[in-house]
Inverse folding.
């Protein structure tokens, strides 16, 4: 065997070993998800059987319907969609306004305010939960959906503003000069000229805000302490697991959990191009 052939064999064997371990890791990571899908499609009798089955006895998609109609996950799903839709609109909007002020407008103390805002990114979010709870409780907003989306209406987060500001710094100012000469104010220039050019970063912010609100368990668990509170799906999956109706229908729990995981997966798959482009472009500009 020649030296070239030996190198080729070593290279092929090395790649085969690498791919083998990669496939093995993928199977290990995907097994819980496959198990959840199978259990969500099983019949009630098969799920409750003392023998552990790993494969479904049929495609019982009716489990998904019953999980949200009879299992009590229907209203939490609606609540989650309401919160997520509000957040995914308000977060890019608030971010665009704040980032435009920092990137385009000149006002006294701009750099100081920006520096103070960036310092807040170093604070763990958990340290603000107690004062926020006291504030919402005094305002009578606990056991409602307002604490879940109200912060996003006024402040979108320091890192979001930073990313959008970096993106705006890469947009040529000359594009706004003609509009400014025609009498366009800052709001017109922001929404008519800059907003379409900032579509990648705005979509990135909207999708991230939606996914974060969709999977948020901590916030509803802190502000909703009543059985009549409007729970979101993330919290309902935990809260309703021990209830009698769902304990005798585990397939409903797996069906609801599947929907819970499918939504962010689909969003990431659909907007993957914008998510990557938004971060890369924001990191390069400025």
């Amino acid at each position: 065997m020649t030296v070239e052939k030996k190198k080729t064999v070593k290279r092929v064997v090395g790649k085969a070993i690498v791919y083998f371990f990669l496939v093995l890791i993928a199977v290990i990571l995907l097994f819980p998800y496959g198990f959840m899908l199978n259990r969500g499609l099983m019949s009630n009798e098969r799920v409750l059987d003392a023998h552990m089955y790993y494969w479904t006895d049929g495609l019982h998609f009716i489990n998904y319907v019953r999980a949200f109609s009879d299992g009590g996950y229907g209203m939490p799903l609606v609540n989650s969609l309401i919160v997520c839709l509000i957040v995914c609109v308000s977060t890019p909007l608030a971010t665009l306004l704040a980032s435009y002020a920092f990137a385009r407008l000149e006002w006294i103390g701009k750099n100081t305010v920006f520096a103070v805002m960036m310092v807040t990114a170093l604070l763990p979010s958990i340290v603000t939960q107690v004062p926020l709870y006291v504030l919402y409780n005094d305002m009578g907003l606990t056991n409602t959906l307002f604490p879940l989306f109200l912060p996003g209406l006024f402040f979108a987060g320091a890192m979001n503003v930073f990313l959008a500001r970096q993106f705006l710094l890469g947009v040529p100012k000359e594009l706004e000069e003609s509009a400014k000469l025609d009498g366009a104010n800052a709001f017109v220039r922001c929404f008519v000229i800059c907003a379409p050019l900032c579509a990648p970063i705005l979509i990135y912010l909207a999708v991230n805000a939606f996914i974060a609100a969709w999977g948020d368990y901590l916030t509803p668990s802190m502000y909703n302490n009543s059985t009549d509170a409007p729970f979101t799906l993330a919290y309902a999956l935990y809260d309703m697991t021990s209830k009698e109706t769902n304990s005798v229908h585990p397939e409903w729990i797996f069906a609801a959990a599947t929907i819970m995981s499918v939504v962010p997966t689909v969003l990431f798959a659909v907007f993957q191009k914008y998510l990557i482009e938004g971060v890369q472009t924001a990191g390069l500009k400025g």
